[in-house]
Amino acid sequence: MSTSYSIQTTVDNENIVAFQPGTLAYDVLAGLIKYPKTLSSKYFYDAKGSKIFEQIMQLPEYYPTRCEAQILETHKQALLEMCRKDYYHLVDLGAGDAAKTRILIDHFYKNNLRFEYIPVDISPSAVQELTENLHQAYPLLPVRSVATDYFTALQWIHSQVPGRKLVLFLGSNIGNFTTEECKQFLSTIWQLLDEDDRLLTGFDLKKNANVIRNAYNDSSGITAEFNRNLLQRINIELGGNFNLDAFEFYASYDPVSGFVKSYMISTKAQQVYIEAFKRSFAFEAWETIHMENSRKFGIREIEELALACRYEVETHLFDNQQYFTDSIWKVAGKNR
Ligand code: AVJ
């Protein structure tokens, strides 16, 4: 998964600037020299972006958060009983402010379940805040927080945290991946878990296409601001001069593939200079930057994914509209 080459860009024939893969600088450069251009949604979540995402979760149009909260509320007792069978390490990938996970934490804690909580998030500020809040609310709960990307975190957990694990991958974060990335990610988790460990993944389901479209084209423009914030982040952290008013947000939904794709579109021909690379990037009028995938799934697609990545599907937990599922898979076939 981690490749060890680096992009080199020649400037003035003599300055060669090299960056490490998986850093903001490397990925921004790699994305902006491509055609069509891309940026990675994993960089949405600086302190400001994490705050904007918390606003998105409050939007009337953005149903996934409420659906998943309802699922966890409805099924928290069943999940408690599942975790009673062992001492569980509850690993929360992309914990954020853990608004939803707290439904489980609260229920488990009040029922005296012995467990450890391990939140993982790429945003150090989010992890920091969460850990403090949890210590306040649940003084006896062991919390070990990890502020890094999923892959590094999982490797750390694999080597440092023996014992039964329930890995939570909530909120349809899996929707950000292409099918290939999805399989790679799920297979990596399979490799880093033990037989009978569990993975609970939130999948946003295919549904009325307009409901989906509206969730990413909210009337208050918060989602546009969320995307625009990455251009702002590049301005701040890499010394860019993106004119934020000269890019507009657009999100499409294809009901066949289930992919919502989000773009920032240059409304005119323009140059964007980025100091970190000591060079400009040319945009044609109406040239796109792909910002994010937010994939929606059919149940059959979910089950095919599980099978392809050697999991056994235990159950799909639904909200009452069947808009969303938290799908519980068991790691299987390790001892074969
Ligand atoms: C956090 C990746 C699940 O794709 O629905 C919300 C992010 N983007 N609105 C999603 C997001 C635009 C969200 N995920």
Q: How many strand units? A: 14
Q: Mind telling me the CATH class of the largest domain? A: Alpha Beta
Total of DSSP H or I helical runs spanning 4+ residues: 10
Bound molecules: N,N,N-trimethyl-histidine
Describe what is shown at a glance.
The chain is an alpha/beta fold.
Explained architecture:
- By secondary structure, the protein is an alpha/beta fold.
- The protein has two domains: 24-58 and 211-295, no CATH class; 64-207 and 299-331, Rossmann fold (3-Layer(aba) Sandwich).
- Helix content is 37%, strand content 25%.
- The strands form four sheets. The protein has a six-stranded mixed β-sheet, sandwiched between helices.
- The structure holds N,N,N-trimethyl-histidine.
- N,N,N-trimethyl-histidine binds at residues 56, 64, 171-173, 175-176, 216, 223, 226, 292, 294.
- GO terms for molecular function: L-histidine N(alpha)-methyltransferase activity.
- It comes from Rhodocytophaga rosea.
Question: Key features?
Answer:
10 helices; single chain; 37% helix; alpha/beta; six-stranded mixed beta sheet; 336 residues; 2 domains; four-stranded mixed beta sheet
List the helices and strands and how they pair.
Elements: E1 8-11, E2 15-18, H1 24-32, E3 37-38, H2 47-56, H3 64-83, E4 88-93, H4 101-110, E5 115-120, H5 124-137, H6 150-160, E6 165-169, H7 179-192, E7 198-204, H8 209-216, H9 222-238, E8 247-254, E9 259-266, E10 270-274, E11 279-283, E12 288-295, H10 299-308, E13 311-318, E14 324-331
Parallel strand pairs: 3-12, 4-5, 4-6, 6-7
Antiparallel strand pairs: 1-2, 7-14, 8-9, 9-12, 10-11, 13-14
Helix pairs in contact: 2-9, 3-4, 6-7
The protein binds N,N,N-trimethyl-histidine.
